[in-house]
Amino acid sequence: MTWTAFHRRGETLRAVIAAADARLDGHLPMDVDGVPETFGDELTLLGALSLRWHTRLAGRIERELMHQPLDIEQAVVTAWQLTAEDLPGIRAVIDRHRAEPLDAAMADAMAKAAAKERILLAVMAGQVSARDDAAVRVGEQIENAARASYRPVRRIPAPRHASGFLDRIRAALAA
């Protein structure tokens, strides 16, 4: 993949995520400019969105474990909820395509992604040490606990304000 293609893919993925966040209907935003050329098909786009979800979730779990080292399972639940709050469109797309895959290949991919996510939840919560079917079941219980107390809200983008050092300098120069 060339440098230009890599950055175009990133830009397109950001546009897809923004569209999914705005819609929150769980449909893959295949109508976003550049999606057909960059991702090709629904399964490839769904794979990219799933990867974004999984990496953000893993990172959020690590951060929460630093803040809540005594209640590990609650830290994992909180991390799942905060990730769902950060990526509501991706979560909706993943949930919809887990429940209603477009074909057998997507059903298989979503089943594998769900199992890997649940294993991550169970292992990071300190509930299992092996990556097996028992870990998937424990992770599913943790996911269900996170969903049970999660209340999604439609976010309104906050107005951009000068908060960083460079922003303050720019504001001072503009004044």
Helix amount: over 70%
What is the average of the pLDDT values? 88
Q: How large a portion of the residues is in β-strands, by DSSP E?
A: under 5%
**What general form does the structure show?**
globular
Radius of gyration over C-alpha positions, nearest whole angstrom: 18 Å
Query: SSE order, as H and E?
Result: HHHHHHHH
Q: Give the structural class.
A: mainly alpha
Distance between the termini: 44 Å
Main pleated sheet: none
- Number of DSSP helices? 8
Number of strands: 0
Quick overview:
By secondary structure, the chain is mainly α.
Description:
- The chain has a domain at 42-153.
- The longest helix has 26 residues, at 42-67.
- 71% of the residues lie in helices and 0% in strands.
- The radius of gyration is 18 Å and the shape is globular.
- By secondary structure, the chain is mainly α.
- The mean pLDDT is 88.
- It has helices spanning 3-23, 35-38, 42-67, 72-86, 88-99, 104-124, 133-148, 165-174.
Key structural traits:
single chain; mainly alpha; 71% helix; 175 residues
How are the SSEs ordered, and which strands pair?
Elements: H1 3-23, H2 35-38, H3 42-67, H4 72-86, H5 88-99, H6 104-124, H7 133-148, H8 165-174
